[in-house]
Structure formats: structure tokens, C-alpha cells
Amino acid sequence: xxxxxxxxxxxxxxxxxxxxxxxxxxxxxxxxxxxxxxxxxxxxxxxxxxxxxxxxxxxxxxxxxxxxxxxxxxxxxxxxxxxxxxxxxxxxxxxxxxxxxxxxxxxxxxxxxxxxxxxxxxxxxxxxxxxxxxxxxxxxxxxxxxxxxxxxxxxxxxxxxxxxxxxxxxxx
Length: 172
Known about the structure:
hpI Integrase, Chain A; two-stranded antiparallel sheet; 4 strands
């Protein structure tokens, strides 16, 4: 693999992992994200719609995720990719497979050293859960979390209860 291709993949994969951890996206949401769904600016919004769902939402990525995403979008533009996908599977613009997203997540976690402290496998869902936990830890209401994630309030309430059980188990 040539140096530019390695650099391209690293930037893409870091930005992908950043949207899991810093914007709470699911794999399907990240892989269906198109360039016209992103506003990197003062509002730093992503517009997420899920086919077959009545919900859409506009997460505001955390600053680190915004920075990595902006860096990736600049590289993507320079590379001349002719694809609507924010995270194409390759430079030819084809769609990324979900297994590639899982492998990218595992590789980023492995090279970051986080794996040294964590016994369980880290996946995109684990990172999304961490994002959700951070929302609750910062005092966000279930209504606010449901709006950020684009989920029903009852689902956010179930997630909060699961998070509270996890907190109790950790402190016991």
C-alpha cells in the first residue's frame, strides 16, 4: 500500500470512529451519511435520516469529532472522490461495508492503547454507548438525549435505566 493510500485510510477511519464516539452515530447512520448532510461550521450539524423511520435528527459532534471530520472531508475533497458517501469504502467511491467499519474501529482502539485497559471488545456500538453515557453524565434529560439520538422518548428512558444499572453495578 502506498503512503498516500495509507494516510487516506487513516484519516477516513479516524473520522469514522470519531462520529461513533463523538456524535453517537450507529454504523448504518455513518455509512449512509452523505456529504450534503454535513455542515462543518458554527452550527456543526449533521442531518441524519433513517430510511423507513419517521425520525430524523441533527447531532452536534463533539469538538474532537468535528475536527477529525473536517480534516477527513478536506482530504476526501483533495482526493477527488466522486461519491456522495462521506465514508466511501475506497477511493473509487464505492459504499463502505459494515465489517470495514468494525475493523477500522478495532484498529483505532488497538493503536490508541485503550485496549490495554479494556478486556471486552470495543465496537462502534460500544463507542455510541459511551457517547450516550457522557450525555447522561453531563446531566442531559431523557428528552434531550432522545432528540440528539433521533429516538423515541421511551427508548431514551430505557437506555437511561440501563445506564443507571450499569453505574450501580460498577460502584458495588
